[in-house]
Amino acid sequence: MYLGALELDVLLGDVRSLKQKRSVIRPVLAELRRMTVSAAETGDQDLYRRAEIGVAVAASAVPYLNEVLDTCERLVADRPELQLLSVRRRIFGPED
Length: 96
Prior knowledge:
This protein is of the alpha+beta class. The protein has helices spanning about 20-35, 60-75, and strands at about 1-10, 40-45, 50-60, 80-90. A four-stranded antiparallel sheet has the order 2-3-1-4, covered by helices on one side.
């Protein structure tokens, strides 16, 4: 079994409060979860224009794992209300 993780650092556009931030992040997380991955806001909860989104997935093969993580990254990058600043990808295998 292989585990993959993404840490996505995003900048939100015209957001002026934490309430607005939640209204932007919540649909992104819901869309990610439809892809059968675990997704959550994992950092920068106290900043209203920044967010860190964590995505995790388990798979039996690395190519499939990479395909799912690539799709998740594209999904976030294609959102017009978000600017993807950085992505950190990690894959853990049986030897780890």
